[in-house]
Prior knowledge:
Helices cover 8% and strands 23% of the residues. The chain has helices spanning 20-23, 188-193, 214-223, 318-325; strands spanning 72-73, 83-84, 98-104, 118-125, 130-138, 173-177, 200-204, 231-238, 242-243, 249-250, 253-257, 260-265, 268-276, 293-301, 315-316.
Amino acid sequence: xxxxxxxxxxxxxxxxxxxxxxxxxxxxxxxxxxxxxxxxxxxxxxxxxxxxxxxxxxxxxxxxxxxxxxxxxxxxxxxxxxxxxxxxxxxxxxxxxxxxxxxxxxxxxxxxxxxxxxxxxxxxxxxxxxxxxxxxxxxxxxxxxxxxxxxxxxxxxxxxxxxxxxxxxxxxxxxxxxxxxxxxxxxxxxxxxxxxxxxxxxxxxxxxxxxxxxxxxxxxxxxxxxxxxxxxxxxxxxxxxxxxxxxxxxxxxxxxxxxxxxxxxxxxxxxxxxxxxxxxxxxxxxxxxxxxxxxxxxxxxxxxxxxxxxxxxxxxxxxxxxxxxxxxxxxxxxxxxxxxxxxxxxx
Length: 347
């Protein structure tokens, strides 16, 4: 995910988020003013946005500019896991060949104040040749009539050599979107970005990512959690041996997929979710007390049987998910109740 075609010094010109409250207005405005995508675009014009704020540190979100805060990086977006990049090379420090990149909309997702909405941020592993996570806001503003364009191709912001080199499948898996196509249909340009290979992972076609499949059922369930206030989600893959709450273990393996013979097949998939309890509070999550927010993780073993539907046994706290994966989630929302959850708030 490194923007390796830009020198580190060039990252200082990154455009940043406007005020955090306007970032997450609800209703007709939806997730609001965003910075244009000048972060190593490499000629990918569909990712460019309108002019946003530049260099105004007082307007940054909780986490400020890329490269500040002792190497913690981010735009202050509420869905973002923590990214540590002290040397500004757009690779996560201390992790082997782990890249990150953000994509921005170029369609109807405009804030009334001007600016461009973000689409998603991806964290991609050059070791597993798969996404580790994709973080995105969910809101009705992203859903329209563009339909599905199926334009599978390499993410232009991530080195092509570590991605899939074709849309072929294998290992009993089909092409599973992390951020789904149906979740980004407000414009053709925006939908096209979710078909980057960086947003695709292998998912078992007969039991997991198919009609009535365990993951498909969970995706439908999460769709129902989208509210007038924004739902923040991190969709992730896990690759180590994983034993779930049902006492069944999934074992790591390599498969042939996407024209490669060295793709890691995930052992577990997860959603980390954050939203207001009310769902229509009209408040940014950083304006809320912990008691006004709800936070949870749904985890599913990749070998889960077809027909499985989301239930309390699939739920863990976000803090527990952090202990499993090693990532820290929702770090820009200090009041996020990551240590606990109430199943009845979700089911």
